[in-house]
Amino acid sequence: MSSQNAGTIIKLFHGFFHKKPSRSSLLLPVAPSKMQINVSGLMGMISQTEDDELDCGQTYELLDQYAEIMERGEDPQILLPKVYRHLNRCKDCHEELTALLAAIQSDHEKNRN
Q1: What is the residue-averaged pLDDT of the chain?
Q2: Is 59 helix (H, G, I), strand (E, B) or coil?
Q3: Residues 28/45, Cβ–Cβ less than 8 Å
Q4: pLDDT tens digit string along 54-99?
Q5: Among the four 6, 32, 66, 107, which has the fewest Cβ within 10 Å?
Q6: Which of 76, 73, 72 shows the shortest CA–CA distance to 6?
């Protein structure tokens, strides 16, 4: 894929798929509307936190680089460990990465035909 095509896909992705998570969705392991807090899940999340973690916004800004690393067959866990940790803990950001990778794969397939 040319870098111009990758840049276009990334711009489209940012425009169509990005949504900022609500503050409460970052703090609670369950939706606030359910009015039920999974205390053991919350404690588990707290015990796994680190001083220099990325938030969803910071992770989102690096998703294109993360996807490119994956596309090159390199190890993102080594090259972007903070993003890797965040994606393993955050369902919303992981879904954003999955959508970006699907868009890139679709572009690859379209360029092959």
Answers
A1: 75
A2: helix
A3: no
A4: 999 999 999 999 999 999 999 999 999 999 999 998 999 999 999 9
A5: 32
A6: 72
pLDDT of residue 112: 84
Q: Return the amino acid letter for 55.
A: D
In the chain, the largest separation of any two C-alpha atoms, in whole Å, equals 51
Check if the beta carbon of residue 76 is closer than 8 Å to that of residue 84.
Answer: yes
| Spatial separation of the C-alpha atoms in residues 100 and 97, rounded to whole Å | 5
Contact yes or no for 34/71 (Cβ under 8 A): no
What tokens were used for 107? 């572009």
95-113 burial, b at 16+ Cβ within 10 Å, e below that, comes to ebbeebeebbeebeeeeee
Residues 78, 93 contacting (CB under 8 angstroms): no
Where residue 26 falls among pLDDT bands split at 50, 70, 90?
A: very low
* Contact criterion met (CB below 8 Å) for 76 and 85: no
Total-model pTM: 0.58
